[in-house]
Amino acid sequence: MLSAVMAGTLLAVPALSGAAPAGSASTAKAVTTSAKANTPKPTVVLVHGAFADSSSWNAVTARLERQGYPVIGVANPLRGLADDSAYLSSILDTVPGPVVLVGHSYGGAVITDAATGHSNVKALVYVAAFAPDQGETGLSILGQYPGSRLPPALAVRPYPGGQDAYVNPADFRQVFAADVPAGKARLMAAGQRPVSLAAFAEPSTAPAWKSVPSWFLVAGSDRAIPPAAEQAMAHRAGSHTQVIQGASHAVLVSHPDATAHIIEAAAHATS
C-alpha cells in the first residue's frame, strides 16, 4: 500500500508542474514532501521470545507510539516453531499496509519463518535473537557457539503432550537479565512464560532474511545466546548491526531507547 501511495504521488507531480507556470519546481517539491509526510507509518509487530511475554516490550512500545507508530505486541504461543510461526503468519494476514517485524530471542526464529510469503513485511529486526538458516535449530546454533548459561539453568515441567522449560528463578537474573534491576528481574522470573522443549529442536524453514532487509541488535554481554552467535547470524543475513556493550539478553527491557531506535531506523529505511 505504501509503495502504491508513493507511486501515485510521484506520478501526480509532473502533471501539476506541467499545468503551472515556469519556475514552479518548488511548489511541486512541496506537494511531494507533504504527501510523504502524510503517508501512514508502518505497523510495528513485536514478537517476544521464551521465558517472557508481551509486557517485555512495554517500554519500547511506549517510545514507538509516541513517534506515531501503530504497534501490535503478539502473544507468542511458545508451543513449537511451526505452530508459532503459523500463528504469527495468521496475524500478519490481518495487518493492512507495510509491517516492520521484530523478534526477541526465540521470537527471532518465529519471525524468520513467519515472514516468508508476506510481501507487506518490509523489514525484520532481530533483538538479541535467533536468525536461523533453513534446517537450523536453536539447539544447533547454541552448539556451534559455546558460552550460553541457559541450558543448565532450565527447569523442566511436564504438560499434556510435552515438556515445558522455565529458567530457574534463582538463575534468571544472571542468565537472562543481568543489567535489569534486581526487583524487576524477580518479577520477570515469576511471570515468565515457559517454552515447549520441542521448540528449540524444531528446524527452521526458508528464512525470510534472505529476501527482506534486516537489522540486528546484539547484546554484548548476553548469557543466553552468545554474542558471537548473534554477530555471526547478523553477518550472514547482511543485517545492519548495532552492538550494545554490557547488555544482557533482556536488552529490550534494559535499553528500550536503543531498541526503539533500531526499529525506527528499519522503518525509515524501508518507507
Describe this structure in words.
By secondary structure, this protein is of the alpha/beta class. The protein folds into 2 domains: 2-37; 43-269, Rossmann fold. Helices cover 45% and strands 18% of the residues. The strands form 2 sheets. A 6-stranded parallel sheet has the order 2-1-3-4-8-9, sandwiched between helices. Strand 1 (43-47), helix 3 (58-66) and strand 2 form a beta-alpha-beta unit. Helix 4 (81-92) packs across helix 5. The chain is globular. 41% of the residues are buried. InterPro entries: AB_hydrolase_1 (IPR000073), AB_hydrolase_fold (IPR029058), Sec-Metab_Biosynth_Hydrolase (IPR052897). It holds the Pfam family Abhydrolase_6.
Defining key terms:
Rossmann fold, 271 residues, alpha/beta, 9 strands, 2 domains, globular, six-stranded parallel β-sheet, disordered N terminus
By DSSP (H or I, 4+ residues per run), the number of helices equals 13
Classify the secondary structure makeup into a structural class: alpha/beta
Q: Characterize the largest beta sheet: strand count, sense, and whether it forms a barrel.
A: 6 strands, parallel
The low-confidence parts are: 1-36
Tell me the count of domains.
Answer: 2
Q: Biggest sheet: strands side by side, in what order?
A: 2-1-3-4-8-9
| CATH homology group of the largest domain | Alpha/Beta hydrolase fold, catalytic domain
CATH topology-level fold name of the largest domain: Rossmann fold
Average pLDDT over all residues: 89
Please give the alpha-carbon distance between the first and last residues: 11 Å
Radius of gyration: 21 Å
Count of β-strands: 9
Helix proportion:
40-55%
| CATH class category of the largest domain | Alpha Beta
Shape: globular
| CATH architecture group name of the largest domain | 3-Layer(aba) Sandwich
| Strand composition percent | 15-25%
